[in-house]
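Per-record layout

source: Streptomyces abyssalis
name: DUF885 domain-containing protein
length: 567
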Amino acid sequence: MSDPMNSTPLPRQVADAYVDALVELDPITGTYLGVPESHGRLPDFSPAGQEALAELSRTTLRRLAEAEETPGADSDAERRCARLLRERLTAELAVHDAQEGLRAVSNLHSPAHSVRGIFTVMPSETLEDWTAVAQRLRAVPDALDGYRESLEAGLAKGLHAGPRQVSTVLGQLEEWVGDGDDGDGKGWFAAFAAEGPDALTEVLASAAADATGAVRELRDWLREVYEPGVAGSPETVGRERYATWARYWNGADLDLDEAYAYGWSEFHRLLGEMRTEAEKVLPGASTPWEALRHLDTEGEAVEGVDEVREWLQGLMDEAIEKLDGTHFELAERVRRVESRIAPPGGAAAPYYTQPSLDFSRPGRTWLPTMGETRFPVYDLVSTWYHEGVPGHHLQLAQWTHVADELSRYQTTVGIVSANAEGWALYAERLMDELGFLVNAEQRLGYLDAQMMRATRVIVDIGMHLSLRIPDDSPFHPGEQWTPELAQEFFGMHSGRPADFVESELVRYLGMPGQAIGYKLGERAWLTGREAARKAHGDEFDPKKWHMAALSQGSLGLDDLVSELSAL
């Protein structure tokens, strides 16, 4: 990658050196990357730990500036890596400098969720694997103490999380420790540890009890100290904080008012298409969502939790067989993806976890059942095209596959949320374009999912910036957005159940700027494809373009459009 006689590294070497240093500070990232030495440790979530990460970013940016002056740094590969590394670290430092880490309470994205979630992807095949699990379980108390220290610092500075986030997380922690009405008093960690080998039963049970005790202490502190301390605080973040977070999640300095208007234009377009499909599903339905409610009870469905996991696995396997060789060219290890059921006590949305760098842990999709045992198919098909194939799995597994050709940074920790979520939403549309949605039920479900992403743009920007609802809106025209109006609007224009809608609204309040990346990211992918199609004319090859697009690694939205257009 560089002249061995030249002591100054190239940008890709700087990026990968950053990954090595990051793994030392953040063992959770190390486990996701498949680094064995990380498996028994957890990060320092205290203010000091956060500052150490920030200092690593500052040092890396200085090294990057030097590397860009090195001969060979102007190649496409080096240039693309450098622009991503600079954009990502700059965005992360902006979040740190705004002290957002001192009020990191969210129903989906917080240190507490990271601590629990990492156990679900740890290796668990050997005695050595479970020994690392026990070691990491014992590290939970210190990790959560550091997290509490950060929240205490935020509380002292008047940097508060929203009250809804706190009350929601309290309910989640209650379930994690097993103290609720349906709990056993032992909790999630005990149930997880019970799966370990007999030789470590006592060790794992003791370590799990320590972890559960730490979660219980965090819950009690949040309830007794933090929740009263943030009572009455704003739920929304305002334009300045929103812009900082939007840059972090989207990799672009967005025109938020233009994005808000785009969300409304997509809302009106999709509503027309949904009415057409709804008439096929339930003639005379007053709204598309009446037709969707009809499908909840009368449409095709999968019965049983084990059965739905197997059904989703079959859906992804079928997509791989039909797409490989026609619209994609997949390496054998990319063809492997697993369907899993998500552990209880999390948010309602399905999700995907990327394979480890050596593919010893495959890519996995996760379905939260929310206590349900019947699963309507209309709500699953396009969702699994999004989470699995050709969505998150094909992109993130392909990035992992080409990590040696790019850099580990570009294909792992440098992921821009809106790039990945935009591709996954584009993947849903691609399957519609290719005719994989075989009936009106499935197509109405797809359009409902698209509508959810359009309404996300509207309510996420609208409520955080307190924007005015347009005069041509069918909902409270001329009024100013509030979280209460946002939840009502989202519920009226979604086929999802009420508990999902509430969970989503809390998610948007706690992760400002993230939810808009799906639709804005899809727009970037479509814009790039159309530009490449026009440039190549009749010579445009979708399979070639898809694989080139999926092999360039992560980019923010601004850079993504220009790079896709040039493929």
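summary: The first strand starts at residue 301 and ends at 303. Residues 111 and 147 are 7 Å apart (CA to CA).
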